[in-house]
Inverse folding.
């Protein structure tokens, strides 16, 4: 089979931590990458909720702890050291039913030596997470005390689903998303899209969607950007990001078979040219 190829299409990505990796992948598949970081992860200046959670965990006040991200799990463990000894926190966490949303928190927990009670299967959304908990709900009290490590905006669907099942939920935010310190590259990416100089836009988090449109609005180009996105291929890494795109009135043209960056780039390279031709012919 021929190697998937972007055939020289201009591809926008909004990665931050993995910007070099995604640019290399796009180029290796014959694309012309434009990478503009759309966010940065910022630890909360005040980790009061994390400190209170650590103390309550030590006291045995939770039946289950849900960890949604790998970075957030590490930040939570580090923040907890301000309130309790690290070894005591890890021991208490090990005695609790720990739920991981996907492979990244699982990897952190493995490093810590903390067993995972439930792990959500792909595509690792809140729906798979709740279904995995439901499958073992008989091991929990009828009204379990559940702590949820959050990132960025709260996942209200997840919180509502837990409460509907009788859980008493404690939200534990440990970091938030912010715009990059230098928004210049992101502003230029918005202008490039608005001028019709991009063929494929790749989104790997819902926050990238929000920040991209926020900057577009701030420089009075949101209408132009929306018109441009109607004529290019919009690729999303998975259901959570796709939901955010659709919620904001944007069509999703492609979602990979697995929510992994390598799979996303490969399958987008394979299909982008035909999708673009079909989209522009309408």
């Amino acid at each position: 089979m021929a190697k998937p190829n972007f055939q020289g299409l201009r591809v926008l990505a909004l990665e931050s931590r993995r910007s070099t990796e995604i640019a290399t992948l796009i180029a290796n598949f014959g694309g012309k990458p434009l990478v503009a970081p759309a966010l940065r992860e910022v630890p909360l200046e005040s980790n009061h909720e994390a400190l209170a959670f650590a103390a309550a965990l030590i006291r045995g006040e939770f039946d289950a702890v849900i960890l949604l991200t790998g970075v957030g799990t590490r930040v939570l463990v580090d923040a907890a050291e301000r309130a309790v000894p690290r070894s005591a926190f890890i021991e208490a966490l090990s005695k609790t039913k720990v739920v991981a949303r996907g492979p990244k928190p699982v990897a952190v927990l493995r490093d810590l030596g903390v067993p995972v009670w439930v792990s959500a299967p792909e595509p690792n959304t809140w729906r798979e997470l709740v279904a995995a908990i439901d499958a073992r709900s008989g091991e929990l009290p009828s009204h379990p005390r559940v702590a949820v490590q959050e990132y960025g905006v709260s996942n209200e669907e997840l919180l509502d689903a837990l409460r509907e099942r009788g859980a008493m939920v404690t939200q534990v935010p440990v970091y938030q998303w912010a715009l990059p310190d230098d928004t210049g590259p992101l502003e230029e990416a918005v202008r490039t899209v608005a001028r019709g100089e991009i063929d494929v836009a790749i989104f790997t988090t819902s926050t990238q969607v929000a920040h991209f449109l926020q900057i577009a609005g701030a420089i009075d180009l949101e209408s132009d950007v929306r018109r441009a996105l109607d004529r290019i291929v919009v690729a999303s890494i998975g259901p959570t990001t796709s939901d955010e795109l659709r919620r904001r009135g944007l069509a999703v043209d492609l979602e990979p078979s697995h929510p992994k960056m390598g799979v996303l780039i490969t399958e987008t390279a394979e299909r982008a040219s035909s999708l673009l031709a079909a989209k522009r012919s309408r």
